[in-house]
Amino acid sequence: MASVDTLCKKLLGVKSAIVTGHDFYQDSDELNHLRIHARPSKRHENDCPFCHRHCRFYDIQTHSPRIWRSLDWGGTLIEVQYRSHRIECPEHGVLVADVPWAYPGSGFTKDFDLTAGWLAVYLPRSTVSEYMRIDWETVGRCVHRTLDVIEPERARRLDNLVNIGIDETSYRKGHKYITVIVNHDTNTVVWAAQGHGKKVLEQFYRQLTPKQLSSIRVVTGDGARWITDCVNEFTPECERCIDPFHVVEWAMEALDEVRREAWREAHAKAIQAEKANPRGRGRPKADDPEAQSIADAKAKAEQIKKTAFALGKAPEHLTENQKLKLAMIAENDKRLYRAYSLKEHLRLLLKHKDTAEAEAELKRWLWRSSHSRISAFKELYKKIKKHKNHILNTIRLGMSNARIEATNNKIKLIIRKAYGFRNIQNMLDMVYLVCSNLRVQLPNRKMKLVRSA
Question: Is 175 left (phi over 0), alpha (psi -120 to 50) or beta?
Answer without folding.
Answer: left
